[in-house]
Structure formats: structure tokens, C-alpha cells
Write a structure and sequence with these properties.
The strands form three sheets. A five-stranded mixed beta sheet has the order 4-5-9-8-11, sandwiched between helices. It has a four-stranded parallel beta sheet with strand order 3-2-1-10. Strands 6-7 form a two-stranded antiparallel sheet. The chain has about 290 residues and is of the alpha/beta class. Helix 5 links the parallel strand 4 and strand 5. It is about 35% helix and about 15% strand. The protein has one domain: Alpha-Beta Barrel (TIM Barrel), CATH 3.20.20. It is built from ten helices and eleven strands. The structure holds zinc ion. Zinc ion binds next to loops.
């Protein structure tokens, strides 16, 4: 690892047809679409095995129910399993009661499959925000120790989300937040470290951006590695386009980055970060 750099490796386990908050194709119709999540996830698993690396897998509850053997395979390979909501409903649209029920359902589900209760959570689309900060005490209440649910530079009740690891403090509890980092230039807060952004940027630019930032949250979806993502009339044309553009470049580019930079999963980062003093955001008043 380059001195002082923290590069995290994560993937959100959902299928190719999911986009945004699952409003484009209703979850009731998901079972009618071809499932490609297992074969696409295995491309990423193979790449990790070749580099002898571990990553954090944030799993959709619906996928865990449909493909428990895939989740067991990931867990038995020594990777970390976190929860990514049951069907990608945004917490801000769920409200506290529905959110808490969703959280319990998913943690139970993943514990039943892997034998371990997850302590990591990522909100769909890094979507926790000012209007859904009530979710933080609920995450703590249900044993979540690590969240990756905010975007750097967002404003939450007057606090600016740091472009790196920090703690949310609530009473005697603390939650490590590992946000999605962004390019730190005025009016150019670009995301570059994952998914479509990663697929579109040339490897030279990616290398330069990853080396310049002290903290990088690399995040992928199984479809980013899929060379044959289907198209469907149920998605708008731009989504069909975005699902496929640059996919052939994901594995080769990630392979190069993994050769050059050190990457660790979020849980391993949390252990290292315990030795350090991090910024804190006190949420009692939110
Ligand atoms: Zn997602």
C-alpha cells in the first residue's frame, strides 16, 4: 500500500436490471427477468482470488433469498458480508418504521445463510442524507458498526461529510462511516472510484486519481463485470446504454489497479482505524 493511503474494495450484490431506487422496474417483476448475478459476481470473486484479496460484499436481501448458495460461497471464501437493504428502497422514502423492519429482516436473513450477523451496512445509492439521519441510531441499535452510506461533502444538519473515514456519535455509541469519496476540487466533486464512472475513465486517469487521494472507496456491481448485460424495454434507453458501456474494461482496469495499489475490505480498515483519531459528528441533535 502507498504510504498513508487507504483504498477500500467493495461491491453491491444486486442484479443487472436494478437501477436507482428500484422504481424503474418494480421488485414484483424481478423474478421475470434473467438472473445474471451469480455468474457476474464470480468474475469479481475470481479476480480477488488471483490477487489473494478480500473485499466487502453489500448484499441485497432479495438476492440473498433467491441465491443463498452464492452468499454462502462469498462468505466461505473469507470475504465480508454487509447488508444493502432488502430491495433497494431508499431509507428516505421508507421512513423509520419500515427502515427498521427492513434492517432486521435482512440481518436475520444473512445471519441464517452465513452463520454470522453482519455489522456493516450500505444504504442504496449512498443515499443517507439530512432527511434520513434518523436511520443512524437505528443502525447502531441493531449492531451495525460500519456504515458506507453517505457521499463526501454532503451537508447533514450543518455538518459537512468528510472526504474520508469519520465517526457518528450518538450517546455512548459510535458508528464508523466510510463515505463515498469524491474529487476534492471546487465545483468538481466528481465520483471516479466505482461503477459507471470507473468504467468510463481511462486507466491512466484512474491511476492518477487513486494515487492522489489518501482515501478511495472503490465500489462495483456484478453487472460492471458482465460483458453481456441484456437490454430490456422496461428500462429507459439511457439505462440500457449505461448498463453496458465500458464493461469490457472493468476487469482489466481493476486488475491493473490491484497490481499497483493495496486494497482492503471495510472491516479490516475499521480495525486499523481504531488506532487513529478520526473526525466525529455528534448526531444526538439530528
Ligand atoms: Zn445498490
Amino acid at each position: 500500500m502507498s504510504a498513508g493511503n487507504l483504498n477500500l474494495l467493495s461491491i453491491d450484490i444486486e442484479d443487472w436490471y436494478l437501477s436507482y431506487d428500484s422504481s424503474q422496474i418494480t421488485p414484483a417483476k424481478w423474478h421475470l427477468l434473467e438472473s445474471r448475478v451469480t455468474q457476474s459476481t464470480r468474475i469479481f470473486l475470481k479476480l480477488l482470488a488471483e490477487h489473494q484479496l478480500k473485499a466487502t460484499f453489500f448484499v441485497l436481501g432479495w438476492i440473498a433469498e433467491q441465491h443463498p448458495e452464492l452468499i454462502r460461497e462469498i462468505s466461505e471464501a473469507g470475504h465480508e458480508i454487509g447488508y444493502h437493504s432488502y430491495n433497494h428502497a431508499l431509507p428516505v422514502n421508507q421512513g423509520p418504521v419500515e427502515f427498521e423492519a427492513d434492517l432486521i429482516r435482512g440481518l436475520d436473513l444473512l445471519e441464517n445463510i452465513t452463520g454470522k450477523r453482519p455489522v456493516q451496512y450500505r444504504a442504496p445509492m449512498f443515499s443517507l442524507c439530512n432527511e434520513s439521519s434518523w436511520a443512524l441510531p437505528l443502525l447502531m441499535k441493531h449492531g451495525i458498526e460500519i456504515s458506507s452510506s453517505y457521499k463526501a461533502f454532503q451537508r447533514v444538519n450543518g455538518h459537512k461529510i468528510p472526504n474520508g473515514p469519520f465517526y457518528f456519535i450518538h450517546g455512548n455509541n459510535r458508528l464508523l462511516e466510510l463515505p463515498l469519496n469524491r474529487l476534492n476540487l471546487p465545483a468538481l466533486n466528481w465520483v471516479y472510484s466505482g461503477s459507471g464512472y470507473f468504467r468510463l475513465l481511462p486507466i491512466g486517469v484512474l491511476k492518477s486519481l487513486f494515487s492522489q487521494s489518501r482515501y478511495n472507496m472503490a465500489y462495483f456491481h456484478p453487472r460492471d463485470f458482465d460483458l453481456s448485460v441484456p437490454t430490456t424495454k422496461q428500462l429507459p434507453a439511457y439505462r440500457n446504454f449505461m448498463n453496458r458501456v465500458g464493461n469490457a474494461s472493468t476487469s482489466p482496469k481493476l486488475n491493473k489497479l490491484l497490481n499497483e495499489f493495496g486494497f482492503i475490505p471495510l472491516g479490516q480498515a475499521a480495525v486499523q482505524l481504531r488506532q487513529q483519531t478520526l473526525p466525529e459528528i455528534i448526531i444526538d441533535s439530528l
